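Morning. Coffee machine broken again, so started the prediction first thing and wrote up yesterday's gels while waiting. Chain of 193 residues, entered below exactly as on the submission form.
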Amino acid sequence: MHSLLKMSRGIDAFTRWTGKRLAWLILVAVVISAINAIVRKTLDMSSNSWLELQWVLFSIVFLLCSPWTLLDNEHIRIDIVNNLLPKRIRDLIDVIGHAFFLLPLCVVMIITGGPFFWRSYLINEQSGNAGGLPQWPAKSLIIIGFAFLFVQGISELIKRIAVMRGLIPDPHASQVTALEAEVEHLVEAIEKR
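Came back before lunch.
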């Protein structure tokens, strides 16, 4: 199990490194969007390729930063119900969710995304919009994104099993939920009055 935990730490480091760098592409997409809007309004010119580039940049962030979201325990779940359950049950739900839902979904998306991308690549599929971008690079993001998410899912499964066996402390035990942070903020604001 110690070698698996070492592998998990490596995966986590890669996921965090990748997520922090790719998240900046949101700023790039916003700048492109602003420039495109200014040029369209002032010079009455526009380009479909710039519009599509914004979509691709957002897709990169959405698909390739989702493992970082999973790593930081910020993925979607019903926190109100989840927080009412005992820790052991929450850990078991995470293990079952990762093993029987997340990982199989990733495998299905990688397997079905492969031919989807490959057909597009072979014909050098172009956008249906005049002056648009090639489509196959964006389609490759499905395979890459779900492969990254699969690997991070393995890491999370390893860590959750290790937590349940008492081998490591829970990496999310001291994490404050968004609701708790908001309540703390409101209490501080009320106390300052």
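DSSP finds eight helices and no strands in the chain. Going to sketch it on the whiteboard this afternoon.
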